[in-house]
Design a protein that fits this description.
about 140 residues, about 20% strand, alpha/beta, binds adenosine-5'-diphosphate, globular, Rossmann fold, five-stranded parallel β-sheet
Length: about 140
């Protein structure tokens, strides 16, 4: 069984995230979406709402599970016998950031990070953008799966 963790804040989960999951289903037997819960980080969308919303998207996809975790991603991955961490890359900025984390995670646990490039049409979509639009009363439905 090839099991991958897809960790993130997902505040909120966007069509960019969804696309990464759908494409990764061709690579892995199971994907566990891990909503990283950071007590010190301010969250816009309540954790329970985010969990329920993501679960609803994958209701009919038994190979995708959604869980909340705190602590280190590698510990969460090890608990679930995951051999891979899945991440998406939109830009060189993402790339540099992901490289450092991937290196640390590999050293800590031997777990490999697999990066998928964003679809060009989704490259500008971030949870931050969606939160900003939402806070100004704009309709964000086009960014949500
Ligand atoms: P984090 O807070 O850990 O960066 P995010 O919820 O912002 O978590 O993102 C989770 C993962 O999804 C990251 O690897 C991020 O680069 C990726 N991602 C975010 N938006 C997109 C997008 N539009 N296309 C592809 N990957 C994306």
């Amino acid at each position: 069984m090839r099991i991958a963790i897809f960790p993130g804040s997902f505040d909120p989960f966007t069509i960019g995230h969804h696309d990464i999951v759908l494409r990764a289903l061709n690579l892995f037997d199971e994907i566990i979406i891990g909503i990283g819960h950071n007590y010190t980080k301010r969250e816009t969308f309540p954790l329970c709402e985010r969990l329920a919303a993501i679960q609803r998207i994958y209701d009919n996809e038994p190979r995708v599970r959604v869980e909340v975790y705190d602590g280190l991603t590698v510990d969460f991955a090890t608990q679930h016998n995951a051999q891979f961490i899945l991440r998406g890359v939109r830009s060189t900025l993402d790339f540099e950031y992901e490289r450092n984390i991937a290196e640390a995670n590999k050293q800590l646990s031997g777990i490999e990070t697999v990066l998928l490039y964003t679809r060009p049409e989704y490259a500008h979509i971030s949870s931050t953008l969606v939160r900003d639009l939402h806070s100004h009363g704009k309709d964000i439905s086009q960014y949500l799966p």
